[in-house]
Amino acid sequence: MRFRSLLTTAALGAALAVPVAAPPAAAVPSGCDATDAEIYAAPPATVTGSPGDLLACRPAKLTNIPGDVPMKAWKVRYVSTDAKGAGNVVTGTVAVPDAAWTKGGSRPTVAFNPGTLGSGPQCAFSKQLAGEYVDMYEGANLTLFLKAGFAVAATDGAGYLAGQVHTYMVGANAGHALLDAVRTSRRIPGGPLTADGAVGISGYSEGGAAALWGAQLASSYAPELKVVGAAAGGVPGDLKLTAEQLNGSLFAGFLADALVGLHAAHPEMPFDELMNDRGVQAIKDVRSNCLYGTLAVFLGARAESFSTDGLSLGQIYALRGPGGVTWGDIVDRQKLGVGIGTPSSGATYRIGFPVFQYRGWLEEIIPHETEDATRQAYCKAGITTTWKNTYPAEHLSTDWGAAGDVTNFLGDRFEGKPAQGNC
Q: Are 335 and 287 in contact (CB under 8 A)?
């Protein structure tokens, strides 16, 4: 169920590289006393501030993190950057264990992106961690991080404010929001985290794609962060391959989330006008449901059923928007492992730290070919990569089964231990 791994839209790499003038500074909150309504309020027409600026925060009790780990936690509202290079506002959670960090240096932070939770506003990870809605499944993963002494900066991802739609599987949106969650975690008034702490990146399924986008964007987008490793599992590296497998399957709800999420990030592209009555209802269903509701509604559904002309995925990819850009172009821009290299390579996306990639032996949602190909692309690019595909489990259970390995991998990086990789 971290299956947020579908068709979505990350956005033009070119747009990410275009320098922009520094925006006006956002007002720094004097304390963490915002209301819940203020955290999730609709964004302003113009977003001011720099990426990672903290806009509002409030203390939180994370009832859906098991294990009774003593901690301090906050909900946060912060500035990030969307796939087109414009400022946006994102929400998330910061949690810091009370136990002292005793392994040298400042306490490290894990930047965490959850697996698929659905696109309704009630589905936001920060709301679910606080017990306001329960459809999530990764609380125990965070318990392991916190018990190991790591702080956690968990983004909700873009699109969970009032009146918004989650931009599911949009790579640049996800990678930016993940890195900016770490930046904002260090700006909580009176908070315990410092700017020199090491950073690890983690996620599975949708979160796995986000984690690799965070890894690929870190050196250019957040060069001041000391990222020392990334762990990503169940990764839908090629959204077209993933979409073909999802279409008409038991897990077609993930494809529905992706199609609506892509359009949320690219409203200029043809979409609403293509829908028949069933398609109009499908969009409403995606916008209102969380994970299990979406899976139930779209069980066995095919994309061809929702448009007036019965368009196949291939025909949708061929549709053009402004400037001649096709839906296929947008989907292809989300492919992971393209344009990557080591710090000295001159590649578009330079990664100078080890990466752990993994999948279950019985993976049934994400095609094995795309998960394996993403790992191979990282190896070919010379990135130190550890790969494990022997977890005796399907998609969801692998998330839980690999959590200990993920914690140990990041812990070794925080302690400065070298990673050999197994390419």
A: no
